[in-house]
Task: structure prediction
Amino acid sequence: MKRLLEKIKGPIWLAVIGFAALTGFTTIIDWGKENFKQAVCHGQDFIKTSQAYIRNVKVYSQFTIVATFDVMILTDEMRMLYVDYYKKDHAMSRDQEAILRQRQLNENRYFISMYVVGTQKEHTYLTNKSLFTGEYQKAPEMLKGGDAMWSVGMIVGGRQYAPESVRIVELPVEYRQCFGTDLSQFSTVYLVRFAAVDGQRNYIFSADRTPSSVVVRFSSPLYQADAVWKNLAYYLK
Result:
């Protein structure tokens, strides 16, 4: 009797699964589609293409990460990709889109801009004051201000340039997904701007879109780290 049950167990289970598939499963799937309607997801092309303009730098002290920098350089092409992505979520006429594109391109005629997403290890301070003993941690300003832990500079074609401005900003929503998990509640986002021309009023990047070697250098009293693009065309033809 036991052997007989073992022989028929397989076909019985197949019949049960088949019956459920024809009746219950279909009903459950339909119910799920009706009550949990899924959002329409945009393609990932913007995020994938943006990676060519992002460099990730991790600063190690032995096996400990001291700081991380994610740098997105806002070339003409990166800005146009942003407009392509931005217009999907905003009702824009052709004229409005054209104006936005021109504003983005015009900004690059005056500035070389980049977003820097930075995180750093908190510094531990010791104290023996009577009312507060032990130790406490504080993260000093990373890039902005005279007491910042790090300074930032740019090297193009072997020539070094200092930024015109470094300020803390909110990263636009469209750019956030480009940084993935490197952007967190512990990160600080900076907008770093360099003048588009040097002291002799010559453009730092070639206007004919000739690729250049670009280094964004982060320096502190103890460490130095570089974000490097070997062939970067800042302007569109």
About this structure: The two ends are 84 Å apart (CA to CA).
